[in-house]
Amino acid sequence: MSKLPKENQFLDLSDYGRPLAKIIANSLKNTSFTPIHVTLAFVVSGLIAITCILNGYYWATAFFLILKSILDAADGELARIKNTPSYTGRYLDSVSDIILNLLILMTIWYVTNGSLALTILAFFGIQLQGTLYNYYYVILRKKHNGDTTSRVFENETPKALKGEKQRNVDILFGLYTLFYGVFDKIIYRLDRDAVEAQKLPNWFMTAVSTFGLGFQLLLIAIMLAVNLQYYIIPFFIGYSLFILVFIAIRRLINR
């Protein structure tokens, strides 16, 4: 199942794990495993990857980072297969992602004896990249009546869906706002007109999908595997400049 109708789907370079994610989700659809369990599994995979970085096992790190991306897709697939969408799952997924992103970059900083300031800047850049991609993607889904658990503007606590507790939604939404609020506001101010965009063509969304978390983790995995760990932080700082490039292209398309 997809977040978009078939006719509006694009090649999502950050979603390379989707085929395996579907297999995992289908294998769990008649079990007691829930999407939350799969989310917790990707957290474990991310923590194992961090442990591997600390011990210099970079090929193993690459494996667990890619596994993390696959499981990150599988939790949503399982929710759609079981028809159990939830804001609890949506916000737990996002909160887990940002914490793992920070820990991964801090671990790379530690093993490379790099600059803490540049590491924080790279983290900030990675989050802005992902926020821009998600911003455009959610706008596209809303425009074409796709998946609705993510909203263009996360400015108020949503009402709990069937099967979840409002208290859990309240807590996780509060954490989401704390962690992501500044990034959402920056991207909205940089491109507030995007919400009215009539055109977000497939080729454009494919290009912006290089900002997706799955693709970011793939790049980190590859760079670690080929011993380019010292270049990871500078790369993501430099790549963040493409945020302004993509915004400029989006505006040009919708003139």
TrEMBL record:
GO cellular component entries: membrane
Record key words, sorted: Membrane, Transferase, Transmembrane, Transmembrane helix
Stretches that traverse the bilayer: 36-60, 98-126, 200-224, 230-249
GO molecular function, one term: phosphotransferase activity, for other substituted phosphate groups
Any one of the GO BP annotations: phospholipid biosynthetic process
Annotated family: Belongs to the CDP-alcohol phosphatidyltransferase class-I family.
Protein name: CDP-alcohol phosphatidyltransferase family protein
Native organism: Aggregatimonas sangjinii
